[in-house]
Amino acid sequence: MSQNESPKAPKGKLLIGLALFIGGCVATWFFSVKPILKTLDARDWPTVSCKIISAELETHTDSDGTSYTFDIDYQYTYNGKIYKSDKYAFIMQSKGNRKSKLNIVNEYKQTQNPLCYVNPESPSEAVLKRGFHKGLLFAIFPPGLALIGLLVIGSQLAPPTPLPQIRKTKKDWLPKIKIRAKSYHVLEKTPITLQGSRIIPVLVGVLVLNIVWNIIVLEVLLEVYQWIANGTFFENASVTLIVPAMSIFFAFTAVYLALALFNPCPIIQISAESIPLGSTALVGWSFRGRTSSIKHLTLTLRAKEWIQYSTSSGKSRNTKTQENSFYQMQLIDTTNPDEIRTGQVGIIIPEDTMHSFEAKDNKIIWQIVIRGVVHFWPDIKNEFKIAVVPTGMSQEQK
User: Fold this and answer.
1) What is the rounded (10 degree) CA torsion for 174, 176, 177, 183?
2) Whole domain around residue 191: which residue ranges?
3) By CB distance 3.0 to 4.6 Å, which of 167, 278, 286, 288 could disulfide with 351?
4) How far is CA 76 from each of CA 48, 111, 181, rounded to the nearest angstrom?
5) Quick one: pLDDT at residue 119?
6) Domains contained in the chain, number
7) Are strands 81-85 and 65-78 parallel, antiparallel or unpaired?
8) Helix 218-230 crosses helix 233-240 at what angle (to 10 degrees)?
9) In whole angstroms, how large is the CA radius of gyration of the chain?
10) How far apart are CA 208 and CA 216, in angstroms?
11) Tens digits of per-residue pLDDT, 320-368?
12) 270 and 255 housed in the same domain
């Protein structure tokens, strides 16, 4: 590969992403969509009494330990014909704890003529449990698997960052600063305009999660609606209260992020692309949009260390991250509308601290943090990364 050639997406990660996406889609159809469609369809199936032929608790032992399932065989008569079935519910049975499975077995052993629900179009198909039950919550996981695979594929197919040319510099460890294409030239010298984090990708992700979640739990929401209409909500809601609560939470988060899009957009300018330790710089701020809604503004210079490390617990290995702030200086704290609208302030980078640094598992991050309080509306929260270099590092050395 030549110096200027861009690296190709790693095939291994791309194949993993494809496997997760395809497997997740297949699992979503069989373990999420089909059971939910069947559950909705079974709401109109006729009810008949059945006879329990056998109800047994089954024990499974493997390297992961002991788990339990149950097997219930029953017989029923529909339109004068006798049929047999062993289907308890439409969702795949989980290998849960012994007590819960044993309770189900004992319940059907002790019931003289339990009810089952028969498919009128195919009488050989019947089920003991229709409507919402805890097992349907399993349907949440397959779409999440497909979504993870899609994110992995997207990350690998994104345009790769070109490899830097080989040169005798010390700039490779500096952070990649997001700079806007246009400068507003508020400051002296040659200022750069910084770009902060964006809300839109987060909003899109929350909207997708919101839609997927509500499709999966549609049956539960319909069940809860019927309980409210029949006045039996408080008798049944203890099991399913978490489902509508999560739907409300996702919807609220999506609305919150959508409202935040209409906030004034902060623009931070700094008098130099990189600042040596022990040096000074000018930081200016302004907003694109109406600033009269901002009642309180703060700007803070902050430095933090980011660490990623692995921990082992038995056979499993987990990756964890940790952040620690080691420097913080408040630059502006004002409620004055004129000062909120635009201004500039000088900053000093202490000489006895650590400069910016980025590696795979360790980073030193210097930021300008802006916070704007907006009454009865989402607050403005944004972070702008800046580059701090070692003392005495000249422009030619960078």
Assistant:
1) 110
2) 169-196+263-389
3) 278
4) 7, 15, 73
5) 92
6) 3
7) antiparallel
8) 160
9) 30
10) 12
11) 888 888 999 999 999 999 998 888 898 888 888 888 888 888 898 998 9
12) no
Cβ burial of 121 (10 Å; 0-12, 13-18, 19+) is exposed
Overall pTM > 0.70: no
Asked whether residue 1 is assigned to any structural domain, the reply reads: no
Q: Which amino acid is at 150?
A: L
CA distance linking residue 344 with residue 353, whole number of Å: 24
Answer for the pair 164, 398: CB distance below 8 angstroms, yes or no: no
Q: 53: closest CA among 38, 26, 71? A: 71
Q: Is residue 372 part of a domain?
A: yes
- Claim to verify: residue 224 and residue 290 sit in the same structural domain: no
Asked if residue 154 belongs to a domain, the reply is: no
pLDDT > 90: percent of the chain? 14
Q: What angle do CA 169, 303, 348 make, to 5 degrees?
A: 80
Asked if residue 77 is part of any domain, the answer here is yes
- Return the number of other C-beta atoms located less than 10 Å from residue 229's C-beta: 9
* 68, 91: one domain: yes
pLDDT for residue 23 = 81
Q: Are residues 355 and 333 in the same domain?
A: yes
User: Are 97 and 68 spatial neighbours (Cβ–Cβ below 8 Å)?
Assistant: yes
Contact 350, 358 (CB under 8 A): no
